[in-house]
């Protein structure tokens, strides 16, 4: 059962962890490469700020972004700013998202995201939590998938397994972690059933496109090739 208020608190805690970690860096760090191809740390931080504002738009009934081109242009325009400006932007946009989440609302309503995707409003805080946690890892400042809160990792594996469920490029696949939990995904492509086993962090890394799956064990076939998120 989704508790949007609890998720909003988790977003705030994750944001504080990220701001504390990035606050120890110097201005030169914003031009260093992140773990995302073609993006510096400045690109990641700017994206996090603009994503917070975009999700405010979602909660308040506006289009998430004016356009895909405007989204990309905003990230590029802000990427080279000094670190103190980046941190202030992330902090202030996070506060705008917190305020939007605290406003009285019908959390059961359907909201529109990007590319025709819709979801219940109550799931928006978790989507923001995903952005903050995974992009903190993408910064490459020492925060790893193994450092993610255990409840977040379990929910994100389930979220991504559902996202790939029935996908035409993914065979029927069972995911199994070292804590004894299982999920099913895929099923739209020929082949399978395949069983993929590993630690929660390695399963999440593979599903989220952050690891190549080399640390996972596979039974019943080859490791499925997942489409990009």
From TrEMBL:
This is Maleylpyruvate isomerase family mycothiol-dependent enzyme. Keywords: Isomerase. The keyword Isomerase applies. Signal peptide: none annotated. Gene3D superfamilies: 3.30.1050.20, dinb family like domain. Residues 12-139 form the Mycothiol-dependent maleylpyruvate isomerase metal-binding domain. Residues 147-227 form the MDMPI C-terminal domain. Residues 171-195 are annotated as: Disordered. InterPro entries: DinB/YfiT-like (IPR034660), Maleyloyr_isom (IPR017517), MDMPI_C-term_domain (IPR010872), MDMPI_metal-binding (IPR024344), SCP2_sterol-bd_dom_sf (IPR036527). It holds the Pfam family MDMPI_N. It comes from the Bacteria. GO terms for molecular function: isomerase activity.
């Amino acid at each position: 059962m989704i508790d949007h208020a609890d998720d909003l608190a988790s977003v705030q805690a994750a944001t504080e962890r990220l701001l504390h970690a990035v606050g120890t860096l110097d201005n030169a760090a914003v031009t260093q490469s992140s773990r995302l191809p073609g993006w510096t740390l400045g690109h990641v931080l700017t994206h996090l700020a603009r994503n917070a504002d975009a999700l405010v738009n979602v909660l308040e009934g506006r289009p998430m972004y004016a356009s895909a081109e405007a989204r990309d242009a905003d990230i590029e325009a802000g990427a080279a700013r000094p670190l103190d400006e980046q941190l202030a932007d992330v902090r202030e946009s996070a506060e705008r998202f917190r305020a939007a989440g605290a406003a009285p609302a019908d959390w059961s309503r359907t909201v529109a995201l990007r590319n025709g995707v819709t979801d219940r409003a109550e799931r928006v805080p978790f989507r923001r939590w995903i952005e903050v946690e995974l992009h903190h890892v993408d910064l490459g400042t020492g925060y790893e998938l193994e450092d993610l809160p255990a409840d977040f990792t379990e929910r994100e594996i389930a979220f991504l397994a559902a996202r790939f469920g029935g996908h035409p490029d993914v065979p029927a696949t069972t995911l199994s972690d070292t804590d004894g939990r299982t999920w099913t995904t895929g099923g739209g492509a020929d082949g399978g059933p395949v069983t993929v086993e590993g630690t929660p962090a390695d399963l999440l890394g593979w599903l989220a496109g952050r690891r190549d799956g080399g640390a996972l064990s596979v039974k019943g076939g080859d490791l499925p090739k997942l489409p990009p998120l």
